Amino acid sequence: MGQRINTPQTRDLIRRLNLAAITVLNNENHVLPLHTNQKETMALLEVGDAGETNALAEQLSKYTSLSRFRLRPGMTEEANQRLRDSLATYKRIIVAVSEQKLSPYQTFFGKFTTEAPVIYAFFTQGKMMLQIQRAVARASAVVLGHSPNEDVQRQVADVLFAKATADGRLSASLGELFQAGDGVTITPKTPLHFIPEEHGLSSVALQRIDSIALDGVRQGAYPGCQVIVMKEGHVMVDKTFGTHTGTGSARVQPTDIYDLASLSKTTGTVLALMKLYDKGRFNLTDRIADYLPFLQRTNKKDITIQELLYHQSGLPPGIAFYREAIDEDSYEGRLFMSRKDARHPLQLGTSTWANPNFAFKKEYVSKVKTGDYTLQICDSLWLNPSFFKEMEKKIVDAPMKPKTYRYSDVGFILLRLLVEKLAGMPMDAYLQREFYEPMGLERTGYLPLRRFPKSEVVPSSVDRFLRKTTLQGFVHDEAAAFQGGVSGNAGLFSNAREVAQVYQMLLNGGELNGQRYLSKETCQLFTTEVSKISRRGLGFDKPDTRNPEKSPCGKHTPAKVYGHTGFTGTCAWVDPDNGLVYVFLSNRIYPDVTNRKLSRLEIREQIQDAIYKAIQSK
Description:
Low-confidence stretches: none
Mean pLDDT: 95
Radius of gyration: 29 Å
Largest sheet: 6 strands, mixed
Strand order of the largest sheet: 1-6-5-4-2-3
Number of strands: 26
Distance between the termini: 67 Å
Number of helices: 19
Helix content: 25-40%
């Protein structure tokens, strides 16, 4: 019988059960996972017989440089103090306990306090930790391995660096220390956290961000938001506040996807152009009409690509393309009025009221998808691609103004057409192939409902006029919607974590995680050039140092900062001087597009200023 129990299958089952029982009991300030770093040495304090935790030490050495110390029974107070002093010089300390009787070590642990995070790994039964209860209560993290088995030791080392998963839960309470059911899940996807002080920021000063963001929720500037702050490529702040649509709705998760609005310009269109510029496909002084024949015999024929990027082409800010899809015989009077009346009950802007009782032209819009109506506008509206000809016609007919600075979505609609002409494929597919997919950005892209359930996309607005539905996963911007959701001016969806990766790549001069996406020279050109007549860069927005009250950035923002904002309540800013990336995403226009509180309360700018105060306070 004994022979049958000791089979390879049984041994493997016991091994798997041992590994599955590993439990992470607390994780203060997200000290786990530890960062793989051979340059920085960690301390390993071993409590138990010599060599008993060798397997742990060997596995840890794969991820970090290690200094090993051993706490022996019967050491003098002088020796104990020397050991405590030595450990105090390290930024991370791992205490590996394989000893069952810890009473001889109580004097050492009684006085063992340090500024650095201390992680305890117990290769004993859980109740043994009660012998040094006070030291364990002070720990930044505690991992319970239950047994000194070498496989368990190696797995614990892997868990500490998130190379393996631990999702065990405590089966019985351990005194006052931990309750039954306690346990923290660590997986290879658990994000790394960094200590702001180690990167020149004050963590106390950074906490001001929480009160600013929560104040925005409380005052109704937006139902919820995501905030990311990175310094030198390390995440300093990664937080979510509020809910999707207000009280009773889902809490915002870090993975939730937002409509980026005009932040799409620099997170999508400009990236694609930078890639094509890198490949030598165009020059900034080229005329757009040389690539888009429909502009050739028009008053738009001399507009250059550079003028479009600087927003000084003379094109209007926007064109209500959707008007061409509305049947003018389907409603009485005018579609819009400057004040409210019985026929115009819907407010669209400060002084624009609309009549929602109209019908769409049958040749362009259908309530069902058919062979002719293939572009989705929202849940129950489909567009005939022949509508693009109407759009081109509207652009050709648009009046031209002098070539001064005038922010224009129309210019970026043309830039998307340029990208597609040069890339020989749709812009969304080009960006996916060249950037988002190789960068591992799983939740960034146009038309998110093709890949994600609605519940993971935060509703951006309630459109009571044009689409008569809540916009969730369909772009809010009307011009982008009437191109089927992919446009040069809007249409991109993402979350703050992934947006931050795009701007970190730009800050790194075109490189991310050892892979190059753009040349240093192209990054330098696009992110540093500034127009002679405005604050604008090549597609990127900048702080307005001449008129600070008109600046999209906080008061303390250096002039070299670049990025963009979006109408839905989004922004991303890169500061090359301080190695900073800051991203804020919200749905400030939910439910109502006329909500201006985000700008009035200057939430985005206040958070940016709080980041600079955190640098000064350090």
